[in-house]
Amino acid sequence: MSISPVAFRSQYSQLFGSSMLPVLEELFSLEMAMHPSRRDQLFKKVAWDRDIWQSSEMHDMDLFSEVAEGTEYPLKRPKQGAAKTLSMVKYGLGFSISREMVEDGKFELIGDMVRKLAKSGMESQEIQAMNIFNNGFSAETTADGVAVFSSSHTLPSGATFRNRPTTYADLSESSLQTALSDFEQVFVGDSGIIYNMKPKVLLVHPDNKRYAMELIGSELKADTTDNNMNSIKGDGLVVVSSPHLTDADAWFLLADAPETGLRIIERNALSTQAAPEAVGFLSDTIVYKSSYREKIGVTHPYGIYGNQGV
Fold this sequence. Notes:
alpha+beta; 7 helices; 4-stranded mixed sheet; phage-related protein like fold; 12 strands
């Protein structure tokens, strides 16, 4: 379905100050609609109305035990897990529009500035989301205080689990098979429950996008002359690629966003505002700006598996 604009060049000359906002807002929204968000496929977005967001985890109940006839049930309660606080951050950018630009018919220039502002806002959000993965083997941590992708995530009992391979490897048929097998076994609770989580997304750099699609979509097993059935195809993975991944060799497996600890805590969505004409009275300009307020972070490491490659 095509989207037809309601704002036309012939109408622009009567617009200046805050009355220009509906026209500019339409251009901004149309540009955003042309660039679907990758991060919304990977993160769970939570609308929030305060300056901080807190996550406090509870671990699993103990496994069931035998209950003899006529005896009381054992009563247990889950153990308190780690907590994490995310504080909102505001991001923004703007530009000024002179009265002369409007009077002289520089509408294409004004429209181009608005579209570029929209693209900048969306790219900024995408970069911040991908930095969770870029820094996930080092500075970015989960609630237990270790790197997002680690071999030593801790549980209250003192047990540990991992969400990365014991040895890093580039993406291949064999390394992906290992990762898929790991994914079904490594995510365990404090009582020993195996979560048996299912990966849904294979996240890669664009350099690996087509190869990744071959690995998961070919009828026959990739990287071999044998005519074996490609069992990976049956896992139903979807390939997502991002140019904002800084390591072309790194790749990731992700469960459905609600099952993971990947969170976008949204205080204010990406929006625009035009200052009243009086603000720029001495310079005959108006200010057009865009901003959003949010925090991206990771609470728990379940359902996300990272491999740095070599």
